[in-house]
């Protein structure tokens, strides 16, 4: 119905947006209007890295005020953000500590320390979650014990924002799975892992499925009068979960690449895979809406180029860096993007150059050469992980859907299509906000299910296809061999 407004609050590591989705009559097309956009990022204080969640809350309120001033009197609202980071609250709801960024180096060595107490195998068997130092499991392991004991509740960032807006404390499941604390069998927090961290189950609010109605504003916010009447709905609050809901898939055998600050490459499945091979290769099973799983791999992603761009003082736009890279010789310098040294180095450009020196490659000098190195290396990782994913699942893909901001990078899409010899469907860039919006529509009943939602997205937004072009086979073989060598260096 035209009169139904669904607002998505979608906050990534580098920017946030408040957008409004409407369905032009049931079965029609979906439109998305941006209401408000703001920057996001962590900052350093006394040697630690923190997010400013008060600022995020203020920007959300500003966005909703703008919605009202544009004539939206009534709407539903869903919130999604990046995963794994958490907020500790006391009984009254005050924060016990500022919110650490997952890139904080306090987790250096945490993986090794934690697994002195419990093996990686037994954790993987329980949770199906890949070992990454950013996981909440490892973050909580190094968190001050006294503060943890003091915490009445532990909320992930979107849960916290829902709490600030509505007063209700929830643990939305798609994001909760990224903590690395959920047990696949019991579908609840794992007792052994909680005991290891010295936490109790009561410190986590009730698990909540996407689609559940959370309620309206707190009394204080309702009393303001400058905000629309909002009904908050739990969406898939993990941005990657929403991004995959927003994939305009129309075939059965598709893989996805959610391309933003991170590149998340994988496949949607009905069940988790916790085979020894999946564990050994460190693939993860994140929970999706409607009981699905995303079997995927985290790749360092556009973070690499975001940092490079920042270090050039912002003098090149992303588009310009892509253009410069397109003029360079392919596969001249290659990095293994997932090396932990790229998680948050003091200088990304120096780190890339040092890496190339260390592995005996030509050292990229110009902005074009650096950008080319990043894009070639990302495309090569996509190639290797797609082979793995098809092997581990025993399913062959007929296409790869690239969604998120990275879908705009035509050069990267084409290199990936050529390496993979697979057709790439790029877009929409706003799939996360779309996944957020359609979840609200399913919840209120204007859209039947995710299959219908994806059809609606497919017919409402532009998708660019990149058919594979023939790549010089000597060049390809050499590049693949070099990347394989780096993976084991
Ligand atoms: C992408 C993302 C990803 C997580 C990382 C912390 O924004 O949510 O899925 O692994 O951030």
TrEMBL record:
Enzyme class: transferase
SUPFAM superfamilies linked to this entry: Actin-like ATPase domain
Keyword Transferase: yes
GO BP field: glycerol metabolic process; rhamnose catabolic process
Keywords of the record: ATP-binding, Disulfide bond, Kinase, Nucleotide-binding, Rhamnose metabolism, Transferase
GO cellular component, one term: cytosol
EC number: 2.7.1.5
Coiled coil start-end: none
GO terms for MF: ATP binding; glycerol kinase activity; rhamnulokinase activity
Domain of life: Bacteria
All residue ranges annotated as the Carbohydrate kinase FGGY C-terminal domain in the record: 257-443
Family to which the UniProt record says this protein belongs: Belongs to the FGGY kinase family.
Record's protein name: Rhamnulokinase
Native species: Paenibacillus etheri
């Amino acid at each position: 119905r035209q009169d139904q407004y669904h607002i998505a609050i979608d906050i990534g590591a580098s920017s946030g947006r408040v957008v409004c989705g409407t369905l032009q009559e049931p079965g029609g097309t979906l439109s998305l209007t941006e209401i408000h956009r703001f920057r996001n990022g962590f900052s350093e204080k006394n040697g630690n890295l923190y997010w400013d969640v008060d600022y995020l809350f203020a920007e959300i309120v500003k966005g909703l005020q703008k919605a009202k001033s544009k004539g939206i009197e009534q709407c539903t609202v869903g919130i999604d953000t990046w995963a794994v980071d958490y907020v500790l609250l006391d009984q009254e709801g005050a924060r016990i500590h500022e919110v650490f960024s997952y890139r904080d180096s306090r987790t250096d060595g945490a993986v090794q320390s934690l697994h002195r107490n419990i093996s990686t195998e037994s954790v993987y068997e329980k949770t199906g979650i890949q070992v990454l130092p950013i996981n909440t499991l490892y973050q909580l392991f190094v968190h001050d014990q006294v503060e943890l004991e003091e915490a009445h509740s532990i909320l992930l960032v979107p849960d916290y924002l829902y709490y600030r807006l509505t007063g209700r404390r929830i643990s939305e499941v798609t994001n909760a799975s990224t903590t690395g604390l959920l047990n696949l069998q019991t579908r609840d927090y794992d007792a052994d892992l909680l005991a290891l961290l010295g936490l109790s189950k009561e410190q986590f609010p009730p698990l909540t499925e996407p689609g559940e109605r959370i309620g309206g504003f707190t009394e204080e916010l309702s009393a303001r009068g400058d905000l629309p009447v909002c009904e908050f709905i739990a969406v898939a609050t993990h941005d990657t979960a929403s991004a995959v809901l927003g994939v305009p898939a129309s075939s059965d055998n598709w893989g996805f690449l959610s391309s933003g600050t991170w590149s998340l490459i994988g496949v949607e499945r009905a069940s988790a895979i916790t085979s020894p091979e999946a564990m050994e290769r460190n693939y993860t099973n994140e929970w999706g809406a409607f009981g699905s799983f995303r079997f995927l791999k985290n790749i360092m992603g556009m973070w690499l180029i975001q940092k490079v761009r920042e270090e050039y003082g912002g003098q090149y736009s992303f588009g310009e860096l892509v253009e410069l890279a397109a003029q360079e010789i392919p596969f001249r310098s290659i990095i293994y993007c997932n090396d932990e040294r790229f998680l948050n180095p003091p200088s990304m450009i120096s780190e890339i150059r040092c890496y190339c020196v260390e592995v005996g490659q030509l050292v990229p000098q110009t902005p074009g050469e650096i950008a080319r190195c990043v894009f070639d290396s990302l495309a090569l990782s996509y190639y290797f992980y797609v082979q793995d994913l098809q092997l581990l699942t025993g399913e062959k893909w007929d296409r790869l859907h690239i969604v998120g901001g990275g879908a705009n990078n035509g050069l990267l899409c084409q290199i990936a299509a050529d390496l993979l010899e697979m057709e790439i469907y790029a877009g929409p860039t706003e799939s996360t906000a779309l996944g957020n919006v359609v979840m609200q529509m399913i919840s209120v009943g204007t859209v039947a299910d995710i299959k219908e939602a994806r059809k609606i997205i497919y017919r409402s937004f532009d998708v660019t296809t990149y058919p594979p072009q023939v790549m010089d086979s000597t060049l390809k073989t050499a590049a693949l061999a070099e990347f394989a060598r780096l993976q084991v260096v």
